C-alpha cells in the first residue's frame, strides 16, 4: 500500500538540502513505538542482511529559494510513503491522523490529508518513473567502500532484480519463478543525484524504467522500492503512461 501525505505549515518550510535522514526519522516517529523499534533496530533478516520493507519519496512542492545548505519550500508539501506490509502503512496513517501537530526538523506541520493508494496492476509490463532516486552499489572484494553503479551498466539492473527477488521471498515465503526484467526507458546524466545521508555521499539515479514480471512482483516494486537503501528514501517509483519529453 502507498500513502500520499499532504502537509502544510503557517509559513514557508525550510529544510536542509540533504533531508533524507530527517524525513526517515519523521516516519519512524509517526509509527507505533514497538513497530518503529523493530524496523529501526532489527528488520526482516535475509541471509544476514536486514530489510525494513518500506520506502518514501522525495519531498514534492514548490521551491521558493535555496539558502546555502538549505532549501525553502512554500507552505504545502507532498510526500509518498509505501510498504508491502499493511501493518506498517496503517500504523503510519493512524499516527499521522491522531497527531494535531507534526514536526519535521524545526518546522511545525499540519496534516492536510492522507490518502491510501492501492496500486492496480493490470498488465505484466509497466513503465515507472522515480519518486526518489535509485541507488545500486557493489562492494569490491577486500574493500569496505561502496562502488556505485550507473544505469548504463548491466549490473545495475541485475542487482535491482536480485534485490527485488529477496524482498519477494521475504513477503511470500517462497522463491519467485516467473519472468522478471528491468531495463532503461529514458536515462541521462541530469538524472544523477548526489545525496548526503548522515555525512555519507550516496550516488543515485532518477529516470524512467520498464519492469516486466508478474503482477505480484510489479506491485512489490512499487510498494517496497527498487535498489538499495529504500528506508533511507531511495528507489520509490510510480507507474506512468507516458514518458516526459523534457
Automatic annotation (TrEMBL):
User: Which residue positions hold the site described Transition state stabilizer?
Assistant: 52
Q: Which UniProt keywords apply?
A: Antiviral defense, RNA-binding
Q: What molecular function terms (GO) are annotated for this protein?
A: hydrolase activity, acting on ester bonds; RNA binding
The CRISPR associated protein Cas6 C-terminal domain sits at 119-239
What Gene3D superfamilies has UniProt attached to this entry?
3.30.70.1890, 3.30.70.1900
Q: Report whether RNA-binding shows up as a keyword of the record.
A: yes
Q: Does the keyword Lipid biosynthesis apply?
A: no
Q: Which InterPro entries match?
A: Cas_Cas6_C, CRISPR-assoc_prot_Cas6, CRISPR-assoc_prot_Cas6_N_sf
Q: Which residues form the active site?
A: 28 (proton acceptor), 40 (proton donor)
GO-annotated biological processes: defense response to virus
| Biological role | CRISPR (clustered regularly interspaced short palindromic repeat), is an adaptive immune system that provides protection against mobile genetic elements (viruses, transposable elements and conjugative plasmids). CRISPR clusters contain sequences complementary to antecedent mobile elements and target invading nucleic acids. CRISPR clusters are transcribed and processed into CRISPR RNA (crRNA).
Q: What does the sequence similarity comment in the record state about its family? A: Belongs to the CRISPR-associated protein Cas6/Cse3/CasE family.
Please state what the protein is called: CRISPR-associated endoribonuclease
Amino acid at each position: 500500500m502507498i500513502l500520499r501525505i499532504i502537509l502544510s505549515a503557517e509559513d514557508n518550510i525550510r529544510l536542509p538540502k540533504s533531508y533524507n535522514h530527517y524525513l526517515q526519522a519523521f516516519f519512524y516517529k509517526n509509527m507505533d513505538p514497538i513497530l518503529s523499534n523493530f524496523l529501526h533496530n532489527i528488520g526482516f533478516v535475509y541471509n544476514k542482511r536486514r530489510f525494513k520493507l518500506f520506502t518514501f519519496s522525495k519531498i514534492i512542492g514548490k521551491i521558493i529559494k535555496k539558502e546555502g545548505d538549505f532549501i525553502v519550500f512554500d507552505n504545502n508539501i507532498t510526500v509518498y510513503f509505501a510498504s508491502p506490509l499493511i501493518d506498517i502503512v496503517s500504523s503510519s496513517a493512524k499516527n499521522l491522523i491522531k497527531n494535531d501537530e507534526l514536526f519535521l526538523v524545526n518546522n511545525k506541520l499540519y496534516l492536510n490529508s492522507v490518502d491510501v493508494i492501492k496500486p492496480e496492476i493490470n498488465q505484466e509490463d509497466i513503465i515507472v518513473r522515480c519518486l526518489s532516486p535509485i541507488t545500486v552499489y557493489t562492494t569490491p572484494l577486500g574493500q569496505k567502500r561502496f562502488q556505485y553503479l550507473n544505469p548504463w551498466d548491466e549490473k545495475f539492473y541485475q542487482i535491482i532484480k536480485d534485490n527485488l527477488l529477496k524482498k519477494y521471498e521475504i513477503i511470500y515465503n517462497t522463491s519467485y519463478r516467473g519472468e522478471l526484467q528491468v531495463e532503461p526507458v529514458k536515462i541521462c546524466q541530469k538524472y544523477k543525484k548526489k545525496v548526503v545521508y548522515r555525512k555519507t555521499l550516496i550516488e543515485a539515479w532518477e529516470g524512467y524504467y520498464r519492469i516486466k514480471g508478474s503482477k505480484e512482483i510489479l506491485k512489490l516494486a512499487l510498494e517496497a522500492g527498487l535498489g538499495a537503501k529504500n528506508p533511507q528514501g531511495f528507489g520509490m517509483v510510480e507507474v506512468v503512461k507516458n514518458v516526459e519529453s523534457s
